[in-house]
Amino acid sequence: MNDDLLSIKNLSTSFRISDQWYAAVDNLSLTVKRNEILAIVGESGSGKSALAFSIMGLHTRARMEGEIYYQGQNLAAMSPAELDRLRGNEISMIFQDPLSALNPLMIIGEQIEEVLLLHESKQTASPKKSRKHRKEQAIELLQKVGIPRPEHAYGQYPHELSGGMRQRVVIAIAIANQPKLLIADEPTTALDVTIQLQILELIRRLKEDMAAGIILITHDLGVVAEMADRVAVMYAGQIVEIASIYTLMKNAKHPYTRSLMSSLPTVNDEGAKLHVIHGVVPSLKHLPRQGCRFRSRIPWIDESKHEADPQLHEVEPGHYVRCTCYKDFHFLDY
Amino acid sequence: MWKTILRRLLIMIPQIILLSVLVFILAKSLPGDALTGMLDPSVDPSMLQEQREKLGLNNPWHIQYWDWITKAVQGDFGQSFRFKMPVMDLIGQRINNTIWLSLVTLVLTYLIAIPLGIISGRYHDTWGDRIITGYTYLGFAAPLFIFALLMLWIFGFHFQMFPTGGSVAPGLAPGTFDYMVSKIYHLLLPALSMALITTVSTVQYLRSEIIDIKQKDFVLLARAKGASESRVYTHHILRNSLLPIAAFFGFEITGLIGGTVFIEYIFSYPGMGQLFLNSILIRDFSVVTALVLLYGIASILGSLISDIILGIVDPRIRIK
Amino acid sequence: MALLEVRELKVHFPVYGGVFRRVIDRVKAVDGVSLNIEAGQTYGLVGESGSGKTTTGRAIIGLNPVTSGRILFQGEDIGDGMRRSRSRFRRDIQMIFQDPYSSLNPKKRVLDIVAEPLRNFERLSAAEEKRRVQELLAQVGLSAETIHKYPHEFSGGQRQRIGIARAIALKPRLIIADEPVSSLDVSVQAQVLNFMQDIQKELNLTYLFISHDLGIIRHMCDYIGIMYKGRHVEQGTTRDIFENPQHIYTKRLLAAIPDLDPKQREIRHRQRESVRLEYEEAYSRYFDDEGLACDLKPLSTTHFAALPERG
Predict the structure, then answer these.
(1) pLDDT tier at A294 (50, 70, 90 boundaries)?
(2) For residue A267, is pLDDT > 60?
(3) Would the CB atoms of A226 and C257 count as touching at under 8 Å?
(4) Spans of all domains in chain A
(5) What confidence score (pLDDT) does residue A114 get?
(6) Dihedral over alpha carbons A112, A118, A124, A126 (to 10 degrees)
(7) Do A95 and B240 touch (CB under 8 A)?
(8) What does pTM read for this prediction?
(9) A–B CB contacts, 8 A cutoff, strictly below
(10) Which of B91, C104, C130, C266 has CB 3.0 to 4.6 Å from C151, enough for a Cys bridge?
């Protein structure tokens, strides 16, 4: 049996800006295996969240091309009703901002029960019995994600919980039906470090307990290093480098990946200058559509070193880098 | 919750006292007094003085205020000089008409606003939305009294579909079925005229709430749960966007007061609004002050109702 | 003498309740914080949300009322900003805010934003003012033509620079930076941090740097204070804190920092587990019933920790 849980082929997701379509995700292909955490790293505007939303079918005003195969079924070609059977059930998502991801007018319990109810098999016994069962399940889930006094939290409204607790509720909703594919979009960005650690532990345990495939979207290389099996680095709608975490941390090749790593304040550089990437991330409308997209950020590298139509090259088994410019890349200063 | 309501009720007391003082001072500072309109101009000035003294009109203002307010609390707002009857009885005859008119207008306002707002917000940037938004702009731009006159002329005079004045056809006995039907028939055109105009702000409000809410994360999360589009609307978007509309309910009452004054006058509908305008024109002060006070109290009650509704429906404000 | 000295600062917020909205409780946002910052240094205030770090910063600049305690700037009491006029100190202490998107008025041009403090404190002619603003923008690396633009025309990093230009317009001595890079992307973050270090040297600035990100704190700060529930749990040089943490809470925070070496995962996991166990086991000794830390005790001339009494 094929190990690929999700396989994205030539996906482009475009948004309309004053009568023109611009691709935020541009001809992207990747696979996620069972029992694997694939991290997608990039800064704002890299298209990483647009990718997550494309997989979940959450874009309302975007144009999507390409295929998204989940266990052989093309999600991109599904009707809303077919998609609704999978979403929240086999495929689910953890949202970034725990403060806005919960309905302020519904108690926590009701919000968890909703996802249980929507995917309940039809032959369940009496409605009364199944309601009681859902409540038990919801409380069990709250307990599982580490919320103290779950029976009490069940009846609380989102505003009565702290950010970390709300994020746990969001996770409880995401794992309620034991998904096979979980997309976590910046799950810990809004949280304090100690809470972040607990949430990451929780996600890791999910992988171990349910052998789920997890897409972890983040801008934090520290989180990536703690969590990921493989890493895809995105820049301007494309994957510029993809490799196993061990390879990437040791032997990153693409100029963007290397620049990102050297702009982090790390343990041994007290007082030293941080690396600054030249220029700014171009907006969606002004993305360079031809040639190497990172070209304008490393102007000291000769134009001839870039490919005309940069492709991903396999530089060692499982390690792909886009464009040939990495061969001649060097930092300008320091 | 009860504590909050109690606290708001306590705050109302100084508000109402302040209101009554203001109303009284305003009425007193207007030129002329109760006797000016009542008596023959050829009457001897010394007799006028005597009358004034007798009625207490020469007392310092705070004593006059005290006289007025102590009676007012007991429901005695004095006599109307025009109708020669107690103000309270006069208002009592008309208050029902105004309440019915307001009620029907409110119902119509929401009957128009909720579906239009939902269509406009859910399908925004479509032709349907553009037509509805166009209507709301027209509604904002058109003054109520001109629109009401237009309605009266078209449906009342031209097509003769509705009566053009009064609150009930003459000769019907109160309590009979025909009487009720006639009442409603008379109400319909004024209420509809007012509702069509006053509803536009609610339509706009609901539309922008829905557009705002539908891109919130919790709505996306609901979709990510596998909820169908209709469920997303009924369980998540509408619940949240109708909340501020519900809370606005109390303030609608304030808006209605202004509206009924014009509408009743234009449609010759015998309610408090019509009485109010007429009394101002003939300086029937005891009526005017009583009505202003009532309107003021209604406004204060309206905002209290808003607060209470919000406290009940919004768990974030709900006080334990 | 320290440039800024805070002694036993307390900021308590009243909680109102009941029919008559009387004060029924107090939230002790800051409860007895003392710190010294030497001129030209950077003091990092670290803590999780609700630790009182932001309230402390805002109390020093006068945005929050001080319940008790003293704030001395160059040895002089600047008192409670809510009551006393402090225009002299207002010039010397400035603030950089967390969110470059909401801390700049979107309806004002860059010229007006940067010139605002100048208009409050100095009488300049229009031409002089424009020249000063252009100088300041050049100092933060923005071109002179940008003065007629509006905030939305800039990227996040550039906006934060505009915020910094405004903060340094009056040549302050002390800048309170409240999570200045938290909302920025990694590469932009690097830019702003570098730049803050540059102007610190150039203008001999002193920073009170408030952040929850220990990596950034370590990179930027000479001296660090760790806060928990409105109180300091540990205070010391960067080296004291990172190499010789004494308080269980500090240890726990440090252990939670993500590590960049994926090979260390197992080891880190075990370390964290043991730190967590130690924390849970020792919690009742380190904190009182309300979860408040003990008083700080000196461990060396620079290093203080809220350790329980022995025995």
Answers:
(1) very high
(2) no
(3) no
(4) 4-103+178-328
(5) 95
(6) 70
(7) no
(8) 0.85
(9) 78
(10) C104
Mind telling me how many Å the CA of C26 is from chain A's nearest CA?
19
Pick from A105, A160, A170 the residue to mutate for testing the B interface (most B CBs within 10 Å): A105
Q: How far apart are CA C59 and CA C57, in angstroms?
A: 5
Are C221 and C45 in contact, with CB atoms under 8 Å apart? no
Give me the pLDDT at residue C82, please. Answer: 47
* Greatest distance between any 2 Cα atoms in chain A: 72
Residue A15, φ and ψ in degrees, nearest 5: -120, 150
DSSP-assigned letter for residue A188? T
Residue C226 has what pLDDT? 96
Q: A223 phi and psi, to 5 degrees?
A: -60, -40
- Parallel, antiparallel, or unpaired for β C93-96 and C174-178? parallel
Question: Mind listing the pLDDT tens digit for each residue in A96-150?
Answer: 888 899 999 999 999 999 999 999 876 656 777 788 999 999 999 999 888 889 9
Successive 10-residue mean pLDDT values, chain B, 320 residues: 81 90 82 61 73 74 84 83 85 90 93 95 93 94 90 90 84 84 90 93 94 93 94 93 86 85 91 90 84 90 85 71
Residues of A in contact with C219 (CB under 8 A): 265, 269-271, 274
Cβ distance A275 to A263 under 8 Å? Answer: yes
A196 close to A203: Cβ distance less than 8 angstroms: no
Please tell me the predicted confidence (pLDDT) of residue B320.
42
Helix ranges (DSSP H) in A12-63? 48-56
Interface contact flag, B227 A95, Cβ < 8 Å: no
In the predicted model, residues of chain C with pLDDT beneath 70 are 79-88, 310-311
The torsion angle over the Cα atoms of residues B47, B50, B56 and B62, rounded to 10 degrees, is 100
Alpha-carbon distance of A112 to A131, in angstroms, equals: 12
Its CATH architecture, for the domain A4-103+178-328, is 3-Layer(aba) Sandwich (3.40)
ipTM metric: 0.88
Domains of chain C: 4-229 (3.40.50.300), 234-311 (no CATH)
The single-letter code of the amino acid at A197 is L
**Nearest chain B CA: its distance from A182 CA (Å):** 11
Q: Edge-to-edge strand order for the sheet containing C76-77?
A: C22-37, C4-17, C68-73, C76-77
pLDDT given for residue C87 in this prediction: 60
Residues 6+ apart with CB under 8 A from C233: C226, C227, C247, C249, C250, C286, C293, C305, C306
Q: Do A265 and C193 touch (CB under 8 A)?
A: yes
DSSP C293: B
Chain A residues within 8 Å of chain B (Cβ atoms): 53, 56-58, 80-81, 83-89, 92-93, 95-97, 100-106, 114-115, 118-119, 157, 159, 170, 173
Domains and CATH numbers, chain B: 2-81 (no CATH), 87-313 (1.10.3720.10)
- Confidence bin at A184 (pLDDT 50/70/90): very high
Cβ contacts of residue A235 below 8 Å, gap of 6+? Answer: A42, A46, A256, A293, A294
Within 13 Å and on the Cβ side, how many CA atoms surround C205? 27
- Report DSSP state, residue A71: T
pLDDT per position as a tens digit, B107-144: 999 999 999 999 999 998 899 999 999 999 999 998 88
Residue where the block lists tokens 């996770």 = A171
The residue written with tokens 């003990």 in the block is C294
Contact C21 B6 (CB under 8 A): no
CA gap A221, A262 in Å, rounded = 11
